[in-house]
Amino acid sequence: MGASGLEIARGTLQVEGLSVAYLAAGPLDAALPSVVLVHGLGAAKSWWRHTIPALAARFRVYALDLPAHGESAVPQAVPDAGFGARFLLAALDALGLPRAALVGQSLGGYIALQVAIQARQRVSRLVLVDSAGLGRDLNWLLRVATLPGWGELLLGVLGRYRWEIRREYGALFHDPSVLTEEMAEEIKANRDRPRASAVLLAMLRRGVTWRGVKRSVLLLDQLSQVRAPALMIWGDGDPLFPLSHARSAQEGMPGSRLEVFAACGHCPQLEYPERFNRSVTDFLARPAPLDA
After folding, report:
1. Which of 106, 124, 131, 256 is an active site residue?
2. Is 174 known to be catalytic?
């Protein structure tokens, strides 16, 4: 049960041979849009804890734990570059959703955008929150983590300590106090799982080098293929992906909207939940000329 009294159901799916944990809330009404929330690398479905109750007042909402995150299984093999889109499409199938609005943050935004490009008919609306895949610039610490030995030290050794987790993740926010003790404990618990840190590091190295985001994973030249109405929400002080990425993406998606949150880091849904929820709810509820 959520703090607001809203019933939030917990469940598991079998997706790509993995046990995947999810939360579900809101009315089961085929006439209402379904919304799927996809978190970023190293986060979990709980990072939508303010978003789920707000959206569930109007929509059927699902929040997934990506593989090797939260309560979802750790894959035996390192996911390949196309795994994210395949995973999300398979998750939509497992949930019985032929079409849904996708809200993705960071890596989750990248995955949602891939699906919007590859399977247009499956996406009714697209919300990208400080999304990956829209530019090469990247925080230096993530670049260093891709170097041999350094990533293993930062995630596998130092990354098991609470003080390092607080330093590392607190830097994502304009206000580091947004990172609660509960969130830090959840991150530590995930990193303590066998192979979880190694898989997360391998996922990072799939798309990043010490030079920045790999050109091969950028989606800027494919944005014109997006047909779903799109909203981008970005923190003006994002330490990972600068606001210039959003500006470039807006040029590539004619008709898309960009909302910039001042004094905000990488996670607007956590730093300014009320404004975030209002913006996303209004966007999802607004009639579209044509939902392709």
Report:
1. 106
2. no
Q: pTM of the full predicted structure? A: 0.94
- Catalytic residue chosen out of the listed positions 65, 124, 266, 279: 266
Catalytic choice (238, 245, 256, 279) = 238
pLDDT in tens, 244-266: 999 999 999 988 999 999 999 99
The residue among 164, 172, 173, 127 whose CA lies nearest residue 281 is: 127
Name the fold adopted by 9-139+220-285.
Rossmann fold (3.40.50)
- Quickly count: other Cβ atoms within 10 Å of residue 105's Cβ: 28
Residue pair 129/233 in contact (Cβ under 8 Å)? The answer is: yes
Q: Is 137 a catalytic residue?
A: no
Residue 290 has pLDDT above 60, yes or no: no
Greatest CA span in the chain, whole angstroms? 52
Q: Where are the domains of the chain?
A: 9-139+220-285
Pairing of strands 212-213, 230-235: unpaired
Nearest 5°: phi and psi at 11? -155, 175
